[in-house]
Design goal:
Blueprint (H helix, E strand, L loop, with lengths): L5 H10 L12 E2 L2 H11 L6 E5 L5 H9 L2 E6 L5 H7 L6 E5 L7 H9 L4 E6 L2 H13 L4 E9 H7 L10 H9 E9 L4 E2 L6 E8 L10 H13 L5 H6 L8 H11 L12 H11 L2
Parallel strand pairs: 2-3, 2-5, 3-4, 5-6
Antiparallel strand pairs: 1-8, 6-9, 7-9
Helix pairs in contact: 6-8, 9-12, 11-12
Length: 285
């Protein structure tokens, strides 16, 4: 069954009495060109493990199962479970978990399904869970090789932003600290059913095998970043000295900036990841 064809997808959904949920941000992909680009850029082969978040009706899942060693899909919507079981019944390498990925014990799930093996993440993420899902995958010490994600264009712009621009922020730094982001393709509203009100983007996050940024204290680095961007219109000195996330006096901050050859009136949004790491290392040795 070609689930990327609306003429085949919709009768199937009707057969199971399925109704789309706005609350869950459900928009199913119905564009084969975009589906092919996701598969081609995933670099999936018979040795690849995949964790898919939000498989929907199984359009991408079906293609992943044809190529991967193992596919574990986590779906929150009970109404989609019989549809997924029906569509993926031919595959012995498919495991379906009916749960909320935000409440699931990810470490246990990954250990039970992938053990110590590497895996990639594939997901069509609604806006409200995009950032926490991405950062949880990075920060929990999982053996993630890459993530290929369908996300809202606005979020992709923030991930791919350059220092000094309005979109540059804590998400940019967080993603860039752990991975090299790559835009795969655009996905306009007509590529989905029902059509969303916003455009989407397929982005691939290539996780660094060897971390290029050295920080003395990762926790304090991210608290520094949070301090910088929670008060981004203030100077760096004022945003850091007045931050509720770190305890650092103005004199120490000014000395660090002088050491770095930076203007004391500079705003934090001007600093790239290297410079933010350097600043954090000077402040928290």
């Amino acid at each position: 069954m070609k689930l990327y064809n609306k003429s085949e997808l919709m009768p199937l959904l009707e057969k199971f009495g399925f109704n789309f949920s706005k609350t869950l941000g459900q928009n199913f992909l119905i564009d084969k060109n975009i589906l092919d680009k996701i598969i081609d850029n995933s670099n999936i082969n018979q040795n690849t493990n995949v964790l898919e978040i939000g498989p929907g009706a199984g359009t991408l899942t079906y293609e992943l199962c044809k190529r991967a060693k193992k596919v574990v899909a986590v779906e929150i919507d009970n109404a989609l479970i019989p549809i997924l079981e029906y569509n993926l019944s031919e595959f012995s390498n498919f495991t379906l978990i009916n749960d909320d990925i935000m409440k699931n014990d990810l470490k246990k799930l990954i250990q039970e399904n992938f053990e110590s093996e590497k895996f990639i993440v594939a997901a069509n993420l609604p806006y409200y869970i995009t950032t926490p899902i991405i950062m949880n995958m990075f920060e929990c010490g999982f053996n993630v090789e890459s993530m290929i994600l369908m996300i809202q264009k606005e979020v992709a712009n923030r991930i791919y932003a350059k220092p000094g621009t309005k979109d540059y922020g804590a998400l940019t730094v967080g993603v860039g600290f752990y991975s090299s982001p790559e835009i795969i393709c655009q996905a306009p509203p007509h590529c989905f059913t029902p059509q969303p009100k916003v455009s989407s983007v397929v982005i691939k996050l290539n996780v660094y095998e060897n971390q290029p940024y050295h920080v003395n204290n990762k926790e304090m680095f991210f608290k520094t970043v949070k301090s910088v961007f929670s008060q981004r219109r203030k100077t760096l000195v004022n945003s850091l000295s007045g931050s509720p996330f770190i305890n650092c006096d103005k004199i120490k901050i000014e000395n660090a900036l002088n050491n770095m050859g930076l203007d004391l009136k500079i705003r934090g949004e001007k600093l790239d990841i290297d410079r933010l790491a350097e600043l954090s290392n000077l402040l928290f040795k």
